[in-house]
Design brief:
The chain is mainly beta. It has one helix at residues 25-30, and strands spanning 5-7, 10-13, 18-23, 33-39, 46-52, 56-59, 67-72, 77-82, 91-98, 113-114, 118-123.
Length: 124
């Protein structure tokens, strides 16, 4: 049973914005790293953004300057603010938690807890 749950996905036109939310207080509270990944059919899961604690962030080159990952301390919630969306951002988006240090925070195998995903579709 997934202990992380994503929401906020949907359909948007290119240039638009969406904010994804990941809930799961227990998992998020004990996570060393939290991250967002995305996947399209036939492709490997791709790391989008990761956060260590509440301020150490890392982004994939493809989303730098457009996406922002953040964690709410009080709500124990993870967010991904996505702006200037492009058709190539279309994918299933997953949040993930790692309970240990990693030097490759955008690699999916470093994470041990996953949500079930939320679909983002960007039309051009």
């Amino acid at each position: 049973e997934a202990q992380l749950e994503e929401s906020g996905g949907g359909s948007v036109q290119a240039g638009g914005s969406l904010r994804l939310t990941c809930a799961g207080a227990e998992v998020i509270s004990r996570a060393y790293y939290m991250a967002w990944f995305r996947q399209t059919p036939g492709k490997e899961r791709e790391g989008v953004a990761a956060i260590r604690g509440f301020s150490g962030t890392v982004y994939a080159d493809s989303v730098k300057g457009r996406f922002t990952i953040a964690k709410d301390r009080a709500k124990k919630t993870l967010y991904l603010q996505m702006s200037s969306l492009k058709a190539e951002d279309t994918a299933m988006y997953y949040c993930a938690a790692a309970d240990r240090q990693t030097f490759t925070p955008l690699v999916w195998s470093q994470y041990n807890d996953w949500g079930q995903g939320t679909q983002v579709t960007v039309s051009s």
